[in-house]
Amino acid sequence: MDNQIKLGCAPIAWTNDDMPELGETNSFEQCISEMALAGYKGTEIGNKYPRDPEVLKSYLEIRGLEVASAWFSAFLTTQPLEEVKKAFIEHRDFLHAMGAEVIVVSEQGNSIQGQKTVPLFEQKPVFNEKEWKRFIDGLEELGDLAAEKGMSIVYHHHMGTGVQTTEEIDRLMVSTDPAKVSLLFDTGHLVFSGEDPLEILERYFDRIKHVHFKDVRRDIAAEVQREQDSFLTGVKKGAFTVPGDGMIDFAPIMNYLARHQYTGWIVVEAEQDPDVCNAFEYALKAKKHIDALLHKEEVR
Q1: Do 11 and 68 meet the contact criterion of CB atoms below 8 Å apart?
Q2: What is d(CA 8, CA 212) in angstroms, rounded to the nearest whole number?
Q3: Which of 5, 77, 210, 238 is deepest in the core (most CB within 10 A)?
Q4: pLDDT digits (tens, 9 = 90+) for 97-116
Q5: Which domain holds residue 82?
């Protein structure tokens, strides 16, 4: 079954885009070389990656790596739509040149995920009706633009944003055309928020075209909420970790994906401080855990 699922790794464990001080001395080449050494076949894009497709391909191909996708920050609720579309088209064309099939989109209008002093749970943004309409209408336009290149947008529900909870994901899914808007399924953000990942997976499997596997350290996640920490403070404290190292049981999740013949990428994305949790060591730990789960599915 594992030939239907492609395993990738995100560079955020080596260098953090929101907190460049985390992994500041880790080079782009070290990052992709260690991903390949750990056995991954794909990567997402970090801020140290070359943006020229031919240059980036020359680094990745010799390491047997493909580009799975890359994050796009949309500001559909706070910026003119034409500005967002212009930035999106540039991002789309880059990913298309790299051979990616999906584009990760997350609405960052009024997001607090990058604000180091704003409490994560107490001040999470909530869209009003006008913002929901701008968001939904704009997202479908981005979906149309992606389709021009034979690509899909996968929406990333995310801590500290207007689409984080089950209720918010439900509204997004009900309000958008499945032909235009797909979903990114992220285990870590669901569990950190207090949602049930298996429930979301079962409800929206037909809309899910990209998967992020990250785990959560229960005690640290509880501390973040108790101490009214920001999202970035939670990351620095170690709220996230790789599959097999935290509180999430990935076996039923992998079972569901395999049994229902999920065919996209599963990307390990666990932002941590690499000075505390060595990125290569943890990438390898995650790969071994996922491989073991896949093997169990194969022998059933």
Answers
A1: no
A2: 9
A3: 210
A4: 999 999 999 999 999 999 99
A5: 2-299
